[in-house]
Amino acid sequence: MIINKVILLSVFCIALTSCAPTYPKGNIVESVQKLCEKEYNANVEVVIKGSTMGVRIPLEGLFDTETLQIRPEAFDKITGVMLSASRVALSSDKSIDFYTVITYDTKVPGAEVVMTRYIYDLRRFFLGDISRGEFARRMVFDVRFNPQAIIDTWLGDFTLKEQKLPEFMCEQISRRITDEFRESEDLAGKFKVLSCEGKLENGVLKFIVDISREALPLSELIHGKAWHKEVLEFCMQKICYVTNIYNFKDFNEVEVFNKFDNKALIILKNETNKWRNRRIRID
Amino acid sequence: MLLLHKRIKLFLLDHWIKMAIGSAVVLLIGAAIYGLSTLESFYRHMTLATLPLQILIVAVNAMIFVYMYMTVFRGGFAKLDKGLVKGEMIAVSFNDVIGIDEAKQESWEVVELIKDRRKLQQIGGKVIKGILMMGPPGCGKTYLAKAIATESGIPFISMSASEFTEIFVGVGASRMRKLFKKARRLAEAHGGCIVFIDELDAIGKKRGYSYLGQGQETNATQNQLLVEMDGLKQKEENVIVIGATNAPEETLDEAMLRPGRFDRKVYIDKPNLEGREKLFKFYLSKVKHDQSLDIGRLARRAVYKTPADIMNIVKESALIATRNKKDRVALKEISEAMDRVDWGIKHRGFMTQKEKEMTAYHEAGHGVILYMLHPADDVFKISIISRKGYLGVVMKHPKEELHNRNKEAFLADIKTSLAGYVAEKIKYGTTTNGVSSDFRNVMFIAHTMVWRLGMGQSGLVGDYSIYGNNPNSDAPSASQLSEITKEKLNAETQSIMQACLKEVEELLKKEWDIVEKLVKELLDKEELEFDEIEAIFEQFRKNEPTVSSDDNK
Predict the structure, then answer these.
(1) B534 and B513 fall within a common domain
(2) CATH number, residue B485
(3) What predicted TM-score, i.e. pTM, was given to this entire model?
(4) Tell me, what's the ipTM?
(5) Residues of chain B contacting A10 with CB distance shorter than 8 Å
(6) Directed axis angle between helix B407-428 and helix B483-510, to 10°?
(7) CATH code at position B309
């Protein structure tokens, strides 16, 4: 009986200790800064806008001047800062849906690397609900030149745009399409993706892509397989897949338009499941 | 103070595993709390969210492990799973022991000896090592042992002797060692311990020595018991062994019965009239009953019944009263309960009218002779309702509690048994197979009278049944008994039966009206109680022979 009481009391104590958030909403900025400095020796700027947390890190020598790739040491630091941002976002009572880590090179004004994560993805990853590969694919990653960044650097502040799920999703879909056409075993080398952009406009999830066929094999030349259908189908499947993983329903139809051959595929919301499961193809 | 120290030491020795496990659990829980408190809240939530599932998995694993352990290993063959029972927890006092006053008195002396052990040792007396309780089943041996434990207020360990027996040689002895080890430790801490071994004959029968090794396990267990009770030991502890058995004393091993082992024997016999009255009073007080019930009469009718039988009768009568939608137990219910306990359930309605009539004549014959000739037994019920495979029955009980039986009583037994046969013959001129058990009974009594008890007319005395064919026995062989003697004895047996037959025939013919009256009543009512039977005989102005103690000498 005494053992039962001890166990009950212990469980109660454990439950009690788990109640308080580690990073209260009033101290989020300081918490991220302190954590980054303590753990990764990184001085960061932190801004919160709505439910988006932005962390900006200045790095000297972010890019390798010869290869123009991100240097490994810089990448480690970015990863560390992202982890710190994740920890604070997860263990805080402030409702944060997205965090964005912006890294800029102090030697190359305006050049920055932007990485955005959805906290929902983070939770599912920690709970083992999604794989490491899928988790990586769900991050929005962009290397860009941003003139505003130069101004921000001068002013010692930075402008953060609040992230919304539709935009995040569209950017993620664009990245998935671009990456898969480049890296997939079946598609690599066959297609050339010049551009891929998407947005939610008047209830239509609209994606404009510019994807061309590099070279047609002899068999396809003879049999005349319609490769443009293949492109549209692939893009549509990706869009439907992503909308499904976030259970996104605020749209009426989905449109994919390939600028290269002016072909388009439009489906209604209720058809997205069939497309996702590849139970429907273009005739 | 010393006793307290010893108790603490014993407690630590007994519970060190539990205490170690408890401390480890507390430490681990403490470490878990500390670890969780250092985690960030998200990880804490995550850990707590998965905690119920983890506990469930651990519990299922533990259950599977325990199940496997219990079924495959069973904790070792020699595991002794006997817990201590404290004397005061048994809560059976001497006041609760009813109907066996002599045994109670002897047991009370034992309790006093256990309590005054030190005083006894100071004057140089030897402590009692073992008490053997002997007697028929259901007489309260176990109950008395419980009372001894309660009154002496020392720990009590109860085991059945059959728990020691196992197919593997040595297991029983091992269990015995463990039992006594435990008892000695308890005795050290509490000043004494009672080990109660029920059905002791399972390990206490005379040891046999066989070349084939039969009975080795029992021998080993018994040897261990003997050594534990009176062997060489470093220290003498106040461990008292109480054994209980239904087996006759002579079947038990002599080594067990010698002083130093079971040196005090308590004979618990069936209760006498006074005891039975007390028992009826006690058990009837627990049920709603008719206050006009004659307890003395019930006790007289329940001759040779054990306390367990009496308890069963009262319990059964309460059930019958409930079934008959009565709010209290009356004589009728008790009578029915006695019949049920002795003769089983009634089976009605499968005999033809002719069979019923024949059965009625057969039973009436028995009844008349029993009533008119038997000096020691009384007829208390005649029934033509089938029970236990008998079509009818004449129930009798002794008029007094007699402990021997004279020649006249034996002859009356023979006559009573023959009466059914005679009645059938007089009425129908033929007989049925209903006489088979009567004849077996007659033959057995007559044979015993002549062959064993010297009750024949020829003048031959002695027990001729000792002549046997067992080469291992010291008794004379059957070949030493002459054919002439055998013939004489057998003729004597037959002459007793014939004489009785003649007497019964004469009497029944003479009193045939009573037989007819009994048959008529039986066919009407199927069963006649003592009062009804007596009324019939009184109507014909016939009385029972009175019993005198001189008659039985």
Answers:
(1) yes
(2) 1.20.58.760
(3) 0.52
(4) 0.74
(5) 29-30, 32-33
(6) 60
(7) 1.10.8.60
